[in-house]
Every structure is written in C-alpha cells, then in structure tokens.
Amino acid sequence: MAWRDGEAAPETGAHLDGCPQCRTALAELDTLREHLRALPPAEPPADGWVSLQAGLAQQRHSRLLARCGWAAAAAMVFFTISVAVRGGIEAWEEARLNRETKALVAESQRLESILRSADTSGRVTSARTALAIADLEERIEVVDARLAAAQRERRSTRDVLDLWQQRVSLLDNLASAQTSRVAYVGL
Ligand SMILES: [Zn+2]
Fold first, then answer.
1. What distance in Å separates the CA atoms of residue 2 and residue 168, rounded to the nearest whole number?
2. Neighbours of 138 (CB within 10 A)
3. In angstroms, what is the span from residue 19 Cα to ligand 1's centroid?
4. 143 Cα: distance to centroid of ligand 1 (angstroms)
5. Measured distance CA(146)–CA(25) in Å, rounded
C-alpha cells in the first residue's frame, strides 16, 4: 500500500521487480482503488465520523472473527490432501512445513480470541489509531483472500505457510493496536 501511494522505500521497488506475488497483490490493490473511485459520491451521515467509524469497526471486527473458524478448517483439509499425495523425503519435509503451519494456525486462533475478547464498540479512539486498525484489517482480508485462492489452486505448503506467517504477524499488530487504543482511552 505504501508503494502504491508513493511512500515506500526504493528497496520495495527492487523487491517488486523480482516478486510476481507482490506484483499481483499490487495490481489487486490498484484495481480495488479504481473500483472505489468509480463508486458514486455518498452523503455523510448526520452524526458524522464518530458513529461511522464505530459502525465500520464493529462490522469489520465481526466479519474478521466470523472467518477464523473457516480458515482453520480449510487449513486442516489442505494438510490432509497435501500429505496424502506425497511420499518419502518430500513427505518428511512436507510434514515439517505442516507442523510449522499448524503452529501458526494455533497462534492465529490465539490472537483472534484475544481480539474477540476486546470489546471495541463505543470506544473513543484517535483517527490515527482507527486508520491504523482499519489498514491492518484490510491487509488481513487480502491475506485471507489469498489463503482461499491458495487452497483452491492447491498451492505448495510453503506458500500456505508464508501466508499464515503474514496473517499471524498482522493479527499480532492488530492486537497491539487495540491494546494501545485501550491504553489511550485509559489515559
Ligand atoms: Zn514479494
């Protein structure tokens, strides 16, 4: 997103040149922005930013949590298939990657339960924190879409593992952002 908005370091461009996955993600972001720009203008609600922000945060939070059971179930199906079709040394390496992925799925679930226990409704927050949270939740949505695609396309366990790593790291940041919001309100 930073690259799309012209705010990323030059190394990001070098990485993009060599990474088809990131180029695809960037193209998806560009398309998304074009679609958003094509939407008709909407009148802001009378009670403004605060209620809009609270409503959106609540919706997004519910959607995110609704998906987590699905993601874990899909991961288990994926393990079963990928173990069944391989043999020998490959199976050993595959089992190792599967164990790592399972640990990440478990970590992802742990973080989601932390997020679920944090009731975000009706909290006052800075616009900056709200935007950071919205940005993280969007990124998680992108990762979830790519996990679903990886499942459909029977991508390698390594690819799936990478996606789960991204998901855990984003959830971790999201949990921190929500904690900082609580601390902010606590002041
Ligand atoms: Zn990349």
1. 20
2. 15
3. 5
4. 13
5. 9
**What spacing in Å lies between the alpha carbon of 20 and ligand 1's midpoint?**
7
Q: How far is the CA of 33 from the centre of ligand 1 (A)?
A: 20
This prediction has a pTM of 0.51
User: How remote is the CA of residue 18 from the centroid of ligand 1, in Å?
Assistant: 8
Residue showing tokens 């940005």: 135
Q: Name residue 135's amino acid.
A: D
Q: Rounded distance, CA 8 to CA 103, Å?
A: 31
- How far, in Å, from the CA of 49 to the mean position of ligand 1? 35
C-alpha 174, offset from chain centre: 10
> Distance (Å, rounded) from C-alpha 119 to C-alpha 80?
35
Q: How confident is the prediction along the chain (187 residues), in pLDDT tens digits per residue?
A: 788 878 888 888 899 999 999 999 889 888 888 888 888 877 766 666 777 777 777 777 777 766 666 666 666 666 555 555 555 667 777 788 888 888 898 888 888 888 877 655 545 567 777 788 888 888 998 898 888 888 888 888 888 899 999 999 999 888 888 776 554 444 4
Cα 17 to ligand 1 centroid, rounded to whole Å = 9
CA dist., res. 15 & res. 10, Å (int): 9
